[in-house]
Amino acid sequence: MNRIAASYVFPLGGSEPIRNGYIEYADDGTIVSVGACENPSGESEFLDGEAIVPGFVNAHCHVELSYMKGLFKKGTGMAGFIDQINALRDTKPMEEKISDIQFWMDAMWSRGVQAMADISNCADSFEIKRKSPMYSRTFLEVFGTEPEDCEKVIASVLALQKIARSFGLDTSPTPHACYTMSPELLTASSREGLKSGYLSFHSEETHEEEEMLKYGCGKMWNNRKAAGMSVPPVTGKSSLSYFIDRLEKAHPAPFDEHILLVHEVCMDQEGIDAMKAVMRHPFIALCPCSNIFIHNALPPVRLMLRNGLKLTIGTDSLSSNDDLDIVREMHCLQCNFEGLSLNELLTWACQNGAEFLSKEDVIGSIEPGKKPGLVAIGNLSDSASLTPASVSRRII
After folding, report:
1. Is the peptide bond before 173 cis (omega within 30 degrees of 0)?
2. What are the residues facing 258 on neighbouring strands?
3. What are the two backbone dihedrals, phi and then psi, of residue 8, each rounded to the nearest 5 degrees?
4. How far lies 389's CA from each of 167, 293, 301, 328, in Å?
5. Secondary structure of 90-117 in the HEC alphabet?
6. Vertex 99, ends 96 and 100: CA angle to 5°?
7. Residues 57-74: what's their mean pLDDT?
8. Which helix (H) or strand (E) holds 30?
9. Residue range 56-324 in CATH 3.20.20.140
C-alpha cells in the first residue's frame, strides 16, 4: 500500500476538492482510498502547497507534427496558417520527425497526460504510440476538395486504418474540416468514422471559415480559387450547420456516437441548438493557445457553459502552439474567463476527456478502483488557482 498527501487533492467525479487530503493506492496504481488527513504534519509524504489531480486527457493533438515547432509565424489567420503548413510539411528527415514525436510523447507523459485523442495523417507516430503507457485513440484525418477523388481518398484512409490496427491502436477515420473537403468526402468519411462510435472534427475555428461557407468570400475562399481547387457550396449557414447537414446524409439523426467538435471559436446559439437537436453525446475541444497563436481569438466559453456543453481541453499541434502543456492551456482559459475554478478546469481536462474516450471507468477522476494516474501541480496561488509558473509532474 502506498500513500501520498498534499495541500489540495482534486478527486473530481462529483467530489469537492479536499484541503490537506491523502490518497492511498496499490503498487499497480489502482486507487484504494481518498480522504482528508487527520494530521498533515504526520504524513510521510506531503506535497506542501501543491495539488494532486488525476491524469490529464489531451483531447486534441497532432503529435506527428511535433517537428514543426518554432517554424510558423503567429497571427497569420487561418489562410496564412494553411499556406505555411503546406510549405513546411515534410521538410525534415524521417529520423528527426520520429525523434521529435518520441520527445513530446515522453514530455506529455511526464507532465501527466494519461490519454490522448490524436490526429494522424500518416503512420509516423504509430510505433511510438504502441509502446507508450499513454492511451491514445488515433483519428485518421481525411482531406480532399475534389468530388471525383472521394472513393480514392476513402480507400486510402481505410488502408491506413488497417496499418494502425496492426499496431494495436484504437482508430477512427475522421473528416478534417468543411473548408478542406468536398461535400461527398465529408459525408463518406463521417460515415466511416461513425462506424467506430467516434468522430473528431475541426469546426468553426475561424471567421474566415464562416465567410467561406456563408458568403463565398474571404481569404480562404480566395486562396482555394487561386489554387484551382473546388470550394464547398455557399449555403448561407454556418459551417457547423453545414457539417450537420452532411452528417445526416451519413445516417439519419439522432447521433448516439461521441462527436468531438474542435475549436468552435465562432459557435453561436443557433449552432448550439442545431447540434443539440441531433447529437446525443457532443463534446467541445478547447485549444485556446492555438486559437491565439493563429488568429488571436478565443471560443465563447461562457455561452458554452450556459448551454451545459461538455468541454474538454487539447493542445493542438506544435505548428500552432509553443508547447503541448495542458496546464498552460488551463491557465490561458483561467486568465481569459474570469471566475473559472481549478476544479472546473480539471473537470474539463480530465473527467470530460475520459468520458469522450469512453474511459471514465478507469481514468478521469481519483476514485477507489480506478487507475487514473496521479499528477502534482506546483506553484499555485494562495487560493489554489493556477499561476504563470504552475507546472505539472507525474507521480504515478
Report:
1. no
2. 198, 281
3. -140, 140
4. 38, 20, 24, 9
5. CCCCHHHHHHHHHHHHHHHHHHCEEEEE
6. 85
7. 95
8. none
9. yes
Tell me the per-residue pLDDT of 291-335, one tens digit each, with 9 for 90 and over: 999 999 999 999 999 999 999 999 999 999 999 999 999 999 999
Strand order in the sheet with 391-394: 31-36, 18-25, 2-9, 46-54, 374-378, 391-394
pLDDT at 382 over 90: yes
Longest dimension (CA), the chain: 71
- Round to whole Å and give the CA distance between 38 and 8: 14
- State how far the Cα of 99 lies from the Cα of 83, in Å rounded to an integer: 25
pTM above 0.90, yes or no: yes
Pairing of strands 374-378, 46-54: antiparallel
d(CA 99, CA 253): 43
> CB within 8 A of 176, min separation 6: which ones?
141, 142, 143, 201, 202
| Distance from chain centroid for Cα 309 | 15
Nearest to 25 by CA among 310, 276, 370: 370
Grouping H, G, I as helix, E, B as strand and the rest as coil, residue 315 is coil
Cell of 343: 476544479
**CA distance linking residue 346 with residue 364, whole number of Å:** 9
- For the chain, the distance separating the N- and C-terminal CA atoms, rounded to the nearest angstrom, is 13
Residue length of the chain: 396
Q: Are 363 and 371 in contact (CB under 8 A)?
A: yes
300: burial class by Cβ within 10 Å (0-12, 13-18, 19+)? Answer: middle
Q: Please tell me the distance from the alpha carbon of residue 134 to that of residue 390, in angstroms, as a whole number.
A: 22
